[in-house]
Description:
Layout: E1 4-14, E2 17-27, E3 30-35, E4 47-50, E5 54-58, E6 60-66, H1 79-85, H2 88-104, E7 107-113, H3 120-128, E8 136-140, E9 143-144, H4 170-183, E10 187-191, H5 209-221, E11 225-230, H6 233-242, E12 246-249, H7 255-264, E13 267-269, H8 272-281, H9 289-312, E14 322-323, H10 334-341, H11 346-352, H12 355-361, E15 377-381, E16 397-402, E17 405-406, H13 408-414
Parallel strand pairs: 1-4, 1-5, 6-7, 6-14, 7-8, 9-10, 10-11, 11-12, 12-13
Antiparallel strand pairs: 1-2, 2-3, 5-15, 15-16, 16-17
Amino acid sequence: MNDIAIEGGLLWGGPNEHHRDALVYIRGGRVVYAGPPGGVVVPAGTQRIDAAGCTVLPGLIDAHVHLTTNSDHDNVVASDMFRGQVSRPGKLLHGLRNAHRALAAGFTTLRVMGHRGVGEIELRDFIECGLAVGPRLAVSPWWITMTNGHGDLFYPPYTPRRQWDTADGVEECRKLVRLQAREGADFIKVMASGGMSRGEQPHWPNYSASELAAIVDEAHDMDLRVAAHALSREGIRRSLEAGVDSIEHGSYLDHAAASEMARRGTFLVPTMAFNDWCQREGTARGLTAEGVEALRDAHDRTIESLEMAREAGVRIVMGTDSSGTLCPFGAHARELELYVKYGMTTDEALATATVNAAALLGRPDLGALRDGSVGDAIVVEGDVLADIGVLGQVTNIKHVVRGGRDLSGYLRATSEVLDFTVRAES
């Protein structure tokens, strides 16, 4: 029946919706009540969770992950080697391990920047049908990138290229959006600037304004939103002109672009955790010392960009860029810790992983605990509102409820507990 009652905790139901000694009642997989005790009668026989001494939150959303990446932290390999040497079924199995780690950390929804032909669409559908356990997945089947663009340069030179690994020109870009829609895309991801792969520079724009406009026009015609990987000022400017729905990373955002994003309602997904992990532990996670240094400026500028965006009123959505061993699955809450460190209140930070992320996904029934919301909730030992760091210790996640089902027992049996707690600031 997917009926469950969570009783006695500190409830964060959404921004400024805090209740102590609260009750959350989920019936048929949907929230029917969340608030002070006594607001509803819970039928006898309903499964109950005692949340005394805990914080109850909506299931959290990470809006930028690379799911089918290396899950074996005892066997660190460079990302390009992993992409080139691991089979597609092998990548999917790594992705399932990563999905379980995210779920065990309280992230019940992931927005997946997909890898071509690996099977993330099929995994999404299996989970949705109840044939596999995992977080909800919103999937872009693969990126749209130009020849010699970010994405094309992810792959080692010896990797054979296939048709539609790249798209050049307006008509090829339109065609690739249509192919991805037919594949079952939940959204479209386009590479609108360079990045940090070998042979490219982050300040390079990728794609002309007309190519980007064609991608957005075609996607929007089919009710698909467009996420633009855009670090450079020119890449961001062209993306906004084209009408994308979100800027991913946005490291070199300027005040003019931030104001334009706020005016248009464009979301920013800063992905600060990736650079943070790389600066701290990059050489132990498959990067060279030169690679870590190359990321330093983007890391520092992302901090400035976050401040510009907040001052301009841009809606911020949490995304980690979780990617194998470089930015580990299970450590997603580090992104929220960084938001608080760089000026957000805890309420603001939690909103980025709940209501803001739900708005980006076009799913107002996610990211909140109120009448009619999807019954995704987590029970976290301690007071998250007083210390956001509590959320980042996976052992504090006592219960993970997805669609009214407590999956905690399953996750404890199938997912090893990995300690990613950051113990000291650099």
